[in-house]
Specification:
By secondary structure, the protein is mainly alpha-helical. It has one domain.
Amino acid sequence: MKSIITIALLILSNAFMTLAWYGHLKFFDKTQTTPSKFALIVLSSWGLAFFEYCFQVPANRIGYEQNGGPFSLLQLKVIQEVISLTVFMVFAMTVFKNTKFSYNHLIGLGLLVLSVYFIFRKG
């Protein structure tokens, strides 16, 4: 159960992170780059990042094996990276409709999944 909670919280965390990092590229006017507009964008991103941490910190605390969770530190990091890239790909395809993914991207994602296999492999 802790593994499911950890992964769910990491997905939520990464959704906020992706929106904070890339949402302003879509949702703020691209023609104005005044200092006040830039400050508003940065503050908005920081506000979203707050919620990212509200999910990410508990996810890592719950999931970390030395806190009674099922994952080692390395496993947590690899899980987070795969979730981060997966959430980003979904975000890019749904919000930035002109973003196209090629076989190279899918192969790269497949190699990341393969890295999860090796990180979790006993041996």
